[in-house]
Amino acid sequence: MKKILVFLIAVVVLIGTSSSAYAHSGRTDKNGGHNCSAKSKQKGLCTGYHYHNKKR
């Protein structure tokens, strides 16, 4: 019983951490960057052009 519980917890942790690693709604250029929308700037999420991956 304990082995099944440990396995299920491990699966939930792996699914929860790996699915949001590169989360973005889209509309990035070929380098993985884009300009912030006015709405995002108002919320303080970003200030201008930025990247969502390590390519530059």
Tell me about this structure.
Residues 1-23 form the signal peptide. Keywords: Signal. InterPro entries: YHYH_dom_bact (IPR047773). The protein is mostly helical. Helix content is 41%, strand content 7%. It has helices at residues 2-18, 38-43, and strands spanning 33-34, 50-51. Strands 1-2 form a two-stranded antiparallel sheet. The mean pLDDT is 78.
Give the assembly state of these chains: single chain
What is the gyration radius calculated from CA atoms? 18 Å
User: How far is the N terminus from the C terminus?
Assistant: 49 Å
Order of helices and strands: HEHE
What's the average pLDDT? 78
The number of distinct helices, counting runs of at least 4 residues, comes to 2
For the secondary structure, the number of strands is 2
Low-confidence stretches: none
**Strand arrangement across the biggest beta sheet:** 1-2
Largest sheet: 2 strands, antiparallel
| Backbone shape | elongated
Structural class: mainly alpha
Helix content: 40-55%
Strand content: 5-15%
Keywords: Signal
Signal peptide: 1-23
Protein name: YHYH domain-containing protein
